[in-house]
Design goal:
Helices cover about 40% and strands about 15% of the residues. The protein has helices spanning about 5-15, 40-45, 60-75, 85-95, 110-125, 135-145, 165-175, 190, 235-240, 250-275, 280-290, 290-310, 330-335, 350-360, 390-395, 415-425, and strands at about 80, 100-105, 125-130, 150-155, 180-185, 200-205, 220-225, 315-320, 345-350, 365-370, 380, 405-410. The strands form 2 sheets. Strands 1-7-6-5-4-2-3 form a 7-stranded mixed beta sheet, sandwiched between helices. A 5-stranded mixed beta sheet has the order 8-9-12-11-10. Helix 5 (about 110-125) links the parallel strand 2 (about 100-105) and strand 3. The longest helix is centred in the middle third of the chain and has 23 residues, at about 250-275. Bound molecules: pyridoxal-5'-phosphate (PLP).
Length: about 425
């Protein structure tokens, strides 16, 4: 058997093996449509009887090649790109939960996902129960109902930076016969591969570290291929009973555990909702992925250096960085991410909101942006920006206090970032 390759090699080489005389770099297939000799040839594609391309809203070779790289990096069996991380999380849940269904989610998740779940998907008739990321096994069990279809959480929560106990969440999900969906945006497969810890579906906002250069908004969904839909056929009729819009195909039968989830999400959700990624964006994402493992190492080193500096500073009231010794998530961080977490540090500036704003305005290298996980350092005050729709109680439930500053360390020199922070703190 071929030896399993190290993640560094998969980042660079995964997903694309050109044949003799073919382009070394992934070709950009900038075409909406594909030509066929007969209507019958194309008909087979529409019926999912043959694989191939006919319209780039559903599938495109450049997007599929980049999805295959992400799939290999996560150790999955099938993957797809979406237009954004929001679309990826929406598809991942909506692919198995309909009106009248229920989903359990960690409360420490990205503000946009919290709003998607608690407002927009609620309007669609799907109920969510939010649990603490540190919930005990009993507390997790108590959140489940007979109509629960999935458990959802983030490896490292944005912006609360809690580390999820993936093994525990997977165990409880599987005891209730539902998959665990993990948003792995902040850890990236360079530092954590949730499928190896029991997660079933992994999602990404590729906009963040994967792209890594603030270039393209995008998302991805990866199926680990381990969840047995047929063993829980009554709970997941969308995968285990015939789809009338595809001449009665039953996805779980035709495409197996390995391919059913992504085929259904492509054939139904992408067909009908159309949140597809452009081939050009996918190509740029592919370039970013080639250096992900190198960048993550530097992001983490800078994050740790900045966290240590802040923790010893008199004007800082608290620091949250899971790999900082003494952090409440230190043990979980070491277990799930032995090579490092990510470059995002959250902290409180003494003097609250006003001091935090003065501090951020004083920074010269790090820019104030809603963005995070970029090669360039950036920072944000979530309570007055990304999370401003949330009440104080909801903010607290997400682990976001009013004084929280989220500082995303780029891949500049740590000494320069610290010098910049030092002079900005001196001004308040
Ligand atoms: C940014 C983010 C999202 C949303 O992704 P977009 O690409 O902005 O749509 C989802 N989850 C996490 C953890 C994120 O950081």
């Amino acid at each position: 058997m071929e030896k399993k390759q190290h993640i560094d090699t998969v980042c660079v080489q995964g997903g694309y093996t050109p044949g003799n005389g073919e382009p070394r770099q992934i070709p950009i297939v900038q075409s909406t449509t594909f030509k066929y000799a007969t209507g019958e040839d194309m008909g087979k594609l529409f019926d999912l009887e043959a694989s191939g391309y006919f319209y780039s809203r559903l599938q495109n070779p450049t997007c599929d090649t980049v999805a295959a790289k992400i799939c290999a990096m996560e150790g999955g069996t099938a993957a797809m790109l979406t237009s954004s991380g929001q679309a990826a999380n929406f598809f991942a849940v909506f692919n198995i939960a309909n009106a009248g269904d229920h989903v359990v989610a960690s409360s420490a998740i990205y503000g946009g996902t919290f709003n998607l779940f608690s407002v927009t998907m609620k309007k669609m008739g799907i109920d969510f129960t939010f649990v603490s990321p540190t919930a005990t096994e009993e507390e997790l069990h108590a959140a489940f109902r007979p109509n629960t279809k999935a458990l959802f959480g983030e490896t490292i929560a944005n912006p609360a930076l809690n580390v999820l106990d993936i093994e525990l969440f997977a165990k409880v999900a599987h005891e209730h016969g539902v998959p665990l969906i993990i948003d792995n945006t902040f850890a990236t497969p360079a530092h954590c591969r949730p499928i190896e810890w029991g997660a079933d579906i992994v999602t990404h906002s590729t906009t963040k570290y994967m792209d890594g250069h603030g270039s393209c908004v995008g998302g991805a969904i990866v199926d680990g291929g381990n969840f047995d839909w047929m063993a829980h056929a009554e709970r997941f009729p969308g995968l285990t009973t015939p789809d009338d819009s595809y001449h009665g195909i039953t996805y779980a039968e035709r495409f197996g555990k390995e391919g059913a989830f992504i085929t259904k999400a492509t054939a139904q959700l992408m067909r009908d909702l159309g949140t597809t990624q452009s081939p050009m964006s996918a190509f740029i994402l592919g370039l970013g992925l080639e250096s992900l493992h190198v960048r993550m190492k530097k992001h983490f080193e800078n994050g740790l250096a900045v966290a240590k500096y802040l923790a010893a500073h008199e004007k800082i009231s608290w620091v949250k960085f899971p790999a900082l010794e003494g952090d409440e998530d230190y043990a979980l961080a070491k277990k799930y991410m032995p090579n490092g977490t990510c470059g995002v540090v959250s902290f409180g500036v003494k003097g609250g909101r006003a001091a935090a704003e003065k501090f951020m305005t004083g920074l010269r290298i790090a820019a104030i942006e809603t963005h995070v996980a970029d090669a360039r350092s950036c920072c944000l005050h979530p309570a007055s920006t990304t999370h401003r729709q949330l009440s104080d109680a909801e903010l607290a439930a997400c682990g976001v206090s009013a004084d929280l500053v989220r500082f995303s360390c780029g891949i500049e020199a740590a000494e320069d970032l610290i010098a910049d922070i030092e002079q900005a703190l001196a001004e308040i």
